[in-house]
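Contributing new complexes? Match this layout with cytidine-5'-monophosphate.
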Amino acid sequence: MKRINIAIDGPAGAGKSTIARQVAEQLGFIYVDTGAMYRAVTWRVLQQGISPTDEAGVTEAARSMDLELRPGKDGQQVFVNGEDVTGHIRTPEINANVSDVAKVREVRELLVKMQQDMTRAKGVVMDGRDIGTHVIPDAEVKVFLTASPRVRAERRFLELKASQPDLTIDQLEQDIARRDQIDAEREFSPLVKAPDAVLVDSTSMTIPEVVDRILELCRVQA
Ligand code: C5P
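Output block (do not edit by hand):
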């Protein structure tokens, strides 16, 4: 298949990263998880004792850090100033603060530029919230992946229960709803379906079914 760019957006817990990673594997494309970049900035902000709502502080933290994504054997790895933070960016603390950090315009400008640089050679599957609307508006395939809030919380629960045994599905559902609200209501590049994105509701679909649906959209394009 010729090299194209594939944008996968959608609310928290819709399965974007699992699906995007598998689509990339099948096509031999590069997978980029942009949420991990906002999470890495949040990790740095919290580590420096900066309040996530202090826009100037958050901007300075983002500007002064060196952020690097590297492909690893279990998916994308994230490095901040040379330190591998992949294992530290999916905690409840990061979940609770990442959407405030992601609201800051300068943070978005910085990360979107890095993301756009990664897509120039094409052959990228990128997931996030604003990929089809802002990062790669000319992506050949755009998908808006969603599922009911309860199903999204249940899926997150299954993913996290081994590492975070105290979490409950209700807590996760609340966390997801709160993040979706901040992401959808923010001023700069909010979470919204691009008019030309294909809506895929995965509530009653299996992972292979969703992957096949996206591969089918890619074949139509190629
Ligand atoms: O995809 P993930 O749930 O890891 O993203 C974490 C948070 O990062 C989102 O809730 C959102 O606030 C922010 N984000 C964003 N734009 C993106 C990707 C993620 O604002 N392209």
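Reviewers usually confirm one structural detail per submission. For this one: The chain has a mean pLDDT of 95.
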